[in-house]
């Protein structure tokens, strides 16, 4: 249960946002999930212009396995390439290759988990099922012929009437990033029925249980823009406001979405790793969501909202306390606004 949102501002920049709520079983919630994480190891980021993050929804442990698999593959390939030529390593991977690697890792983890479940139930694995028999020992070959058993294995492998594998198939992700060509891209990966990898067909993408609510906000915003604007010039502050608005809507209308937001900013024109990738997940992220939430409930003006988000997310010259004070001062009724943000019916 979650929402992971992404938006593209222009050819070289964009942003992501997610919540932090996770569910244990079906009765406990925790505000502790780390859903958007870097998948490019530090040593590669320091030597190559390559940034990518994996924002996952579904089973936390499976998302962690996928991220770990991607990192391990990248490190191994980078070390091999560096040993051959340090100049070759400058063009190590494209963002398209990273997305493909992410999808391959996702499928590999899925196959592993389904295989483990089948083997736990029937003492043979999916390869045995495909070939129609398994070896109990070197001498004894046992054919898999029982109709009910074969149908059950098929159901597990294809997520048909098989709740036991929900935790495997209910996983999706967004990979965002750029390479040395400085083109920011958004890619969606899914293990659900469609089981696909596709580049975003618009300037936004959203996954998770809150995606239905987020899509409404994004679609409404994107529909108001001309083709030229969508291609080349979404104002980054305006776009950030809509990204936060979509995440707020997901938290408001969908179970399983909540807590502080994690905000990621990408800028491929920057050369230093710490400037081309910026993560905001502390009190500033909470304040940013409150500013946008207050604007859409008519407590502050759009001009003040724009200025506050620009300072809080992009300029970052003022302290949190200074921005918070400016936020309260921007409201014609800060007491009522404070009650509203604390959950009072005002």
Low-confidence stretches: none
How large is the share of residues in beta strands? 15-25%
- Strands of the widest sheet, in order across it, are 12-1-2-13-14
| Most strands sheet | 5 strands, antiparallel
Tally of DSSP helical segments? 14
| Shape annotation | globular
What is the averaged pLDDT score? Answer: 94
CATH architect. name of the largest domain: 4-Layer Sandwich
Task: State the share of residues found in helices, binned by percent.
Answer: 40-55%
Class by alpha and beta content: alpha+beta
Briefly, what CATH class of the largest domain? Answer: Alpha Beta
Number of domains: 2
Name of the CATH superfamily of the largest domain? Aminohydrolase, N-terminal nucleophile (Ntn) domain
Number of E strands: 14
Rg on CA atoms, Å = 23 Å
Describe this structure in words.
The chain is built from 14 helices and 14 strands. By secondary structure, the protein is an alpha+beta fold. The chain folds into two domains: 1-281, Aminohydrolase, N-terminal nucleophile (Ntn) domain (Glutamine Phosphoribosylpyrophosphate, subunit 1, domain 1, 4-Layer Sandwich); 283-346, no CATH class. Helix 9 crosses helix 11 and helix 9 packs across helix 12 (302-315). The radius of gyration is 23 Å and the shape is globular. The mean pLDDT is 94.
């Amino acid at each position: 249960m979650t929402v992971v949102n992404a938006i593209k501002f222009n050819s070289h920049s964009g942003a992501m946002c997610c919540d932090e709520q996770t569910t244990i079983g079906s009765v406990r919630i925790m505000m502790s999930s780390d859903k958007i994480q870097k998948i490019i190891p530090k040593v590669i980021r320091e030597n190559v212009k390559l940034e990518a993050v994996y924002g996952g929804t579904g089973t936390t442990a499976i998302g962690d396995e996928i991220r770990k698999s991607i990192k391990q593959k990248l490190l191994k390939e980078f070390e091999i390439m560096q040993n051959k030529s340090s100049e070759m390593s400058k063009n190590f991977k494209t963002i398209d290759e990273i997305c493909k690697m992410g999808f391959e890792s996702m499928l590999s983890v899925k196959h592993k988990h389904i295989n483990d479940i089948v083997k736990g139930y029937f003492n043979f694995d999916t390869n045995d099922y495909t070939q129609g028999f398994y070896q109990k020992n070197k001498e004894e070959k046992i054919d898999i012929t029982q109709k009910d058993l074969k149908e059950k294995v098929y159901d597990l492998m294809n997520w048909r009437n098989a709740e036991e594998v929900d935790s495997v198939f209910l996983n999706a992700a967004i990979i965002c990033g750029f390479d040395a060509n400085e083109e920011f891209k958004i890619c969606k990966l899914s293990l659900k029925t469609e089981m696909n990898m596709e580049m975003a067909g618009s300037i936004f993408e959203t996954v998770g249980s809150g995606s239905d609510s987020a899509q409404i906000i994004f679609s409404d915003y994107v529909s108001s823009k001309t083709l030229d604007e969508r291609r080349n010039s979404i104002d980054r502050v305006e776009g950030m406001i809509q990204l936060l608005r979509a995440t707020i809507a997901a938290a408001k209308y969908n179970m399983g979405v909540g807590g502080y937001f994690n905000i990621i900013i990408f800028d491929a024109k920057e050369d230093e790793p710490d400037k081309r990738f910026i993560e905001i997940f502390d009190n500033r992220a909470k304040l940013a969501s409150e500013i946008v939430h207050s604007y859409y409930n008519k407590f502050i003006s759009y001009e003040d909202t724009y200025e506050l988000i620009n300072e809080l997310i992009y300029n970052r010259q003022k302290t949190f306390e200074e921005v918070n004070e400016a936020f309260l001062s921007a409201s014609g009724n800060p007491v009522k606004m404070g009650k509203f943000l604390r959950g009072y019916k005002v």
